[in-house]
Amino acid sequence: MIWAYVLILLHGPGGQELYVSPGEVVELRQKRDDEHMQKGIRCIVNTSDGKFSAVVEDCDTVRRMIEGEHK
Hints:
Elements: E1 8-11, E2 17-20, E3 25-30, E4 43-47, E5 52-55, H1 59-66
Antiparallel strand pairs: 1-2, 3-4, 4-5
């Protein structure tokens, strides 16, 4: 039996690579202007384990990647 995991590659504000399982993403939201976060962050990705990742990709791009349209 072969097991395969699908991960999408996102990037943190310092350029670090963040691998996220699309099946674990429960919410995407745009960073608000009043939030004090590192410069360059455009989307907050919340996962089912209660954690979040702040990424430089916009939420529309992340959504397309999750849906498999990032070819």
